[in-house]
RNA sequence: GGCGGCGUAGCCAAGUGGACGAAGGCAACGGUUUGCAAAACCGUCAUACGGGGGUUCGAAUCCCCCCGCCGCCUCCA
């Protein structure tokens, strides 16, 4: 399997630190509001990556952080923090805000069929670990204390800028924030801050304050995954400064390099070809979309069917296309369930094998889900041409299930019909036996109006929801 | 101002020098099948890859210019 490593800017063969095991950290939500469809692109990507690694036989340990410490709303190290702002606006205390949106996040990822990670560490529960790392950084000469604030001295870490491609010179040239006189270098960043206005405060060796913006991910990833692990993911906007600073912190504290072997970042999502923004009216949370009647599985399909390093243009039409594509796969599954030929079909093996090869080749090539799906649909078409036995169908179904262990779009509760609809379907069957097509068509139309579609096949009548 | 990316049919989207006479999905239109439908299958649907130059025996793929969109340069997935 090859993956594109942001750090080296090329596709590399994926070789885990420990054979057979993958340890992965995904940058998770800041829980001061509902996550947007753009956020979910990154989470669905991480989920598909995890599922792909499991498909290929790796045991994956996945950690997703929950950022429940407020970061600042403004560019500089001042202003109101986001948790405080949300709390004020919602007339709640910040801890309630965090709890509320953390719960919303878990409901949303469940709706998108995102598999639960092993750990969801919350930043507020790991302040002692953050303090411990900061102390190590101070001891190693990577950090300094000024007036109860602790800053990272970027000049002590030669690799600073390697991930993003920035150099300190360039950053200085592009600096748009006011220089903080406490800092030795403009690019130094805060590890621990004091500010009486901040609503969440903890005691520390440097006085009462709160942790800096990047330290939580260093502390929590090391705690749960060790000082060196395989994969770290996030949105492309995390590359700088967030991930850049994390590397400086973690490698500076542990002295071990590389902290993370493969960095993988998702591109941004556009809505109707434009950046998602409230003023354009194209700013969507998951619940905004489901309230419009869109199926979360169709949304997942759209998010996972475009290669993660390409811009994704999210449109309502694309969600409809996703819904219909899922329906095609489910119809395929239904037809397989009805297979009843007396003899096995010798042509099946080749069709399945070609599908499997294509699907795996796509995933192996830096998670090229578009290519993998194309192979799947080619296989569906080939298999649909064949007359299959029960045993044949079982083999095809098993492969489809295996593919869906990566896609995650076909699962869904088995639906049932109420007794009245069951009765109408039977009534229609009786009418058809009498060749009373007027009655049978009327019943079919009635049920269609109620969202139940009927299809007559050789084996009988089947139904599905519109 | 500096750095990086994208622009492929009505829509979504692979492909990044020769098997492209451009995957796949959705939509649409013809046909087979069906009592009629649906599903399924077959066929049609980009002489064309934002526009213009150039390199090459050969370019959607490389180079240059232009247009549009997006990201980063200490809030952001």
Summarize the structure in words.
This protein is an alpha/beta fold and 466 residues long. The chain folds into three domains: 265 residues, Rossmann fold, CATH 3.40.50.620; 134 residues, Orthogonal Bundle (Isoleucyl-tRNA Synthetase, Domain 1); 47 residues. Helix content is 45%, strand content 15%. It has 15 helices and 15 strands. The protein has a four-stranded parallel sheet with strand order 4-3-9-10, sandwiched between helices. Helix 2 crosses helix 3 and helix 4 packs across helix 6. The longest helix is centred in the last third of the chain and has 22 residues. It is elongated and about 90 Å long. About 2% of the residues have low confidence.
Summarize the structure.
It contains 15 helices and 15 strands.
């Amino acid at each position: 399997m090859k993956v594109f490593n942001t750090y080296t800017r090329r596709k590399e063969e994926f070789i885990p630190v420990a054979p057979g095991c993958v340890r992965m950290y995904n940058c998770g939500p800041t829980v001061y509001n509902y996550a947007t469809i753009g956020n979910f692109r990154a989470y669905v990507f991480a989920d598909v990556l995890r599922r792909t690694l499991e498909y290929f036989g790796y045991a994956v340990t996945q950690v997703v952080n929950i950022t429940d410490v407020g970061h600042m709303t403004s560019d500089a190290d001042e202003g109101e923090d986001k948790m405080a702002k949300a709390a004020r606006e919602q007339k709640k205390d910040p801890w309630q805000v965090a709890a509320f949106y953390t719960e919303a996040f878990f409901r949303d990822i469940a709706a998108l069929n995102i598999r639960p990670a092993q750990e969801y560490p919350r930043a507020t529960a790991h302040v002692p670990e953050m303090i411990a790392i900061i102390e190590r950084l101070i001891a190693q000469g990577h950090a300094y204390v000024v007036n109860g604030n602790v800053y990272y001295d970027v000049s002590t870490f030669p690799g600073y800028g390697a991930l993003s491609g920035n150099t300190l010179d360039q950053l200085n040239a592009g600096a748009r924030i006011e220089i903080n006189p406490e800092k030795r270098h403009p690019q130094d960043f805060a590890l621990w801050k004091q500010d009486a206005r901040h609503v969440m405060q903890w005691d520390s060796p440097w006085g009462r304050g709160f942790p800096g913006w990047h330290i939580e991910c260093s502390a929590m990833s090391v705690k749960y995954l060790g000082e060196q692990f395989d994969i770290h993911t996030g949105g492309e906007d995390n590359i700088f400064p967030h991930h850049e600073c994390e590397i400086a912190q973690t490698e500076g504290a542990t002295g071990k390099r590389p902290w993370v072997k493969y960095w993988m970042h998702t591109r941004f999502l556009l809505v109707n070809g434009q950046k998602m923004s409230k003023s354009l009216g194209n700013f969507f949370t998951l619940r905004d979309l489901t309230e419009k009647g869109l199926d979360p599985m169709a949304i997942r399909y759209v998010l996972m069917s475009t290669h993660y390093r390409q811009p994704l243009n999210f449109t309502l039409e694309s969600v409809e296309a996703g819904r219909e594509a899922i329906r095609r796969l489910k119809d395929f599954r239904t037809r397989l369930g009805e297979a009843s030929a007396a003899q096995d079909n010798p042509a099946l093996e080749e069709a399945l094998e070609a599908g499997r090869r294509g699907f795996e080749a796509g995933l192996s090539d830096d998670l090229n889900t578009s290519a993998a799906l194309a192979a799947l649909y080619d296989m569906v078409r080939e298999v649909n041409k064949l007359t299959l036995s029960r045993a044949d169908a079982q083999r095809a179904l098993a492969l489809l299930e295996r593919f869906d262990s990566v896609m995650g779009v076909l699962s869904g509760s088995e639906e049932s019909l109420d007794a009245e609809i069951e009765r109408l379907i039977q009534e229609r069957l009786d009418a058809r036996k009498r060749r009373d097509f007027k009655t049978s068509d009327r019943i079919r139309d009635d049920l269609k109006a109620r969202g139940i579609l009927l299809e007559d096949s050789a084996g009988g009548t089947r139904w599905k929801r519109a």
